[in-house]
Each structure stands twice: as C-alpha cells, then as structure tokens.
Amino acid sequence: MGYEQDPARDSPPSASSEAIVAAWYRMQVQNAHLLQRLAVQHELNPIDLRALKFLGVDDGPRTPKDLTGFLQVGSSLGSAVIERLESRQFISRAPNPGDRRSTLLHLEPAGIRVVEQLRGLYGRALSGLFGHPDQDAILAATNQIEEGLRDAASF
To answer: Which of 14, 83, 99, 115 has the most crowded Cβ, counting Cβ within 10 A?
Structure first.
C-alpha cells in the first residue's frame, strides 16, 4: 500500500513523515471548518451533513441500515436523522424493489444542491492540482489515503 515513487525522479522525497502528518492534520482542521460553515448555511447539524455526504458519494440509493452503519449510530438515532432530512425535503424514501421489508433513501433536489455545493468547494480548493504534471501520482496518493483511512477506521 506504500506510495510508489516515480523512477524518473532523481531526488528522494525531502518531506519528513512528521511534516506530512502535520500537513494532513491542518488540512483536516480546515475541512472541519468548511463543513461547519456549510452545515450552518443550510441549517443542518453536522451529523445530518455527514448523512447527505454519504448519500451523495455515488449515484446509487442506500438503505437506512447503510446510513446508520456509516454514521455508526443506533437505529433510533439513524431514524431521527432520516426523518429530519426527509421533513426538510433533502431526502426521500422509496420501497426497496429488492427487499419488501426495506426502503431506499434518495437525495432530493435540495440534498443534491448541498452535495454539489460541497463538491464545488472541494473542486475550488483542489483546483491548483488540476493539470499538475504529477496529477496521476496525486490521484494515486489520494486513493491510498482513502484506503489507509478505511483501514484505520476499522480498528
């Protein structure tokens, strides 16, 4: 899972592991600040915004069980999140054609707008990396970070 250094580069990396962790930590602090501002703007609490982010991570609908598993909350708190978001028309529920006992959660236009706004803000923050000569390496490193965070979260 380690980062594969480009063999065409002559010099070894100069950043220490401590500097990389510190930069990552600072980035996470700024991300938390961005998410808090977005939550306040849309009158959402942080867990509701996390739910919208999760539901907007791909185009497929999710079940309430998927959402509560992601949020790592019990079913009663998960139901409360779903009810809050549904009452404000950020999401809707529909019968699950694959399981009559279950429902599927779908983002509604208001929820899609929040997710698209967040993606736009991330795009603006990352715009200096678009077209960068090492863009493929940056993408590979980002994917490795995602994998590493997934592994770390399963401790």
So the answer is: 115
Note the pLDDT tens digit of each residue in 32-52: 999 999 999 999 999 999 999
**Residues 6+ away with beta carbon under 8 Å from 89:** 108, 109, 110
- Backbone phi and psi for residue 106, each to the nearest 5 degrees, phi listed first: -125, 140
Q: Which helix (H) or strand (E) holds 78?
A: helix 75-87
Q: Is residue 95 part of a domain?
A: yes
Domain span at residue 111 reads 44-125
Cα distance between residue 51 and residue 68, in whole Å: 9
- Quickly tell me which residue has 């708190």 as its tokens: 77
Number of domains present in the structure of the chain: 1
* Residue 131 resides in a domain: no
pLDDT at 71 over 80: yes
pTM across the whole model: 0.81
Using alpha carbons, list the distances in angstroms from residue 10 to 2, 13, 136: 19, 10, 18
